[in-house]
UniProtKB/TrEMBL annotation:
Keyword Transmembrane helix: yes
Presence of the UniProt keyword Calcium in the record: no
Transmembrane segments: 20-39, 59-84, 111-135, 147-164, 176-201, 274-298
GO CC terms: plasma membrane
Organism whose genome encodes this protein: Johnsonella ignava ATCC 51276
Protein's name in the database: ABC-2 type transporter domain-containing protein
Highest taxon above the source species: Bacteria
């Protein structure tokens, strides 16, 4: 079995670092604190009212999952933004070219090491998230479904940082560019959500009313606009994850309200298949960015975006 030497080296350096162990410990301690405080509040409410609301435990699970997602979203670009640019700063990238290691192996090894470190963070937090199992409502299958979204955001956000790193000579510049792109992707849909009045379902209700010729034209224009917004929302990593999270906890009302906002009428193709489309788009975008990163560090590549070395 051929093992990527870059990945092997980077992984050993990362896991042997005391900073890595401290980061995992602090992260899980923070999550455990939130879970215990939230569960204590819910249990105290049960003692007071003598009513058990299992939805409260699901909300705790959703809160912990969201916090973990945001941490992963903002950690992985920092790890990948210095993957290639750090080699340029140390003047060691040219030395790697003199070995048998191919540019693809360099990119794949660096990316897999960052992927491994971030996913270890997710795996280490599973016991904390499993505390909700005590009261039911969440199964192991639900955790596995949620893990797919974590894997996707690691790949998607990580590829953005990796691509910025392949273009820049400075790690600081690459990190700033990666975070700027992520912030733009997350905030690009905010104006539409505000102007639409939040997660409104009025548009879908209006499609049930009789329409004259002018109204049909307006509805057609609205459907085209919804089609465009569906694609724009698919670039937002938070939207895709949030829909999957609400699918896991069975919050159908929130899912319907989001789909009404981004998917147009109830019979629209984008609405019915948006979650799969969103995941597919982000996976494809991440793959393209990773391939471009390989091209950017390949000497004399015809597909290099900037010809200067």
């Amino acid at each position: 079995m051929i093992i990527n030497p870059v990945y092997t080296y980077e992984k050993k350096v990362m896991v042997r670092s005391i900073k890595f162990s401290i980061a995992i410990s602090l992260f899980n301690a923070f999550l455990a604190f939130i879970v215990f405080v939230s569960m204590s509040s819910v249990i105290q409410n049960v003692k007071t009212t003598a009513m058990v609301q299992y939805t409260s435990f699901l909300m705790i699970f959703r809160l912990v999952a969201l916090i973990e997602f945001l941490v992963v979203l903002f950690i992985i670009p920092a790890l990948t933004a210095g993957a290639i640019s750090s080699e340029k700063e140390r003047k060691t990238l040219d030395l790697l070219y003199t070995t048998r290691i191919k540019p693809f192996d360099i990119v794949a090894g660096k990316f897999l090491a960052a992927f491994f470190a971030t996913f270890m963070l997710v795996v280490s937090s599973l016991p904390v998230m499993a505390l909700v199992f005590v009261y039911g409502g969440i199964t192991v299958g639900d955790i596995l479904k949620l893990s797919i979204s974590y894997l996707l955001v690691i790949y998607y956000a990580g590829s953005i940082g990796l691509f910025a790193s392949s273009l820049s000579r400075s790690t600081n510049v690459a990190a700033a560019a990666a975070y700027a792109v992520l912030i733009v992707l997350m905030l690009a849909t905010l104006p539409h959500g505000i102007l639409s009045g939040g997660f409104s379902i009025e548009a879908s209700e209006q499609t049930l009313l009789p329409m004259d010729a002018g109204a049909v034209g307006d509805a057609y224009a609205h459907e085209n606009a919804s089609l465009l917004m569906g694609w724009i929302y698919s670039t937002n990593p938070i939207t895709v994850f949030y829909i999957n999270l609400n699918m896991v906890i069975g919050n159908k009302e929130t899912i319907d309200s989001i789909f009404d906002l981004i998917g147009g009428s109830g019979s629209g193709f984008i609405r019915q298949n948006w979650f799969i489309i969103g995941m597919g788009f982000q996976f494809t975008a991440a793959t393209v960015l990773t391939a471009l990163s390989v091209c950017n560090i390949t000497p004399y590549s015809r597909f290099k975006l900037f010809k200067r070395d």
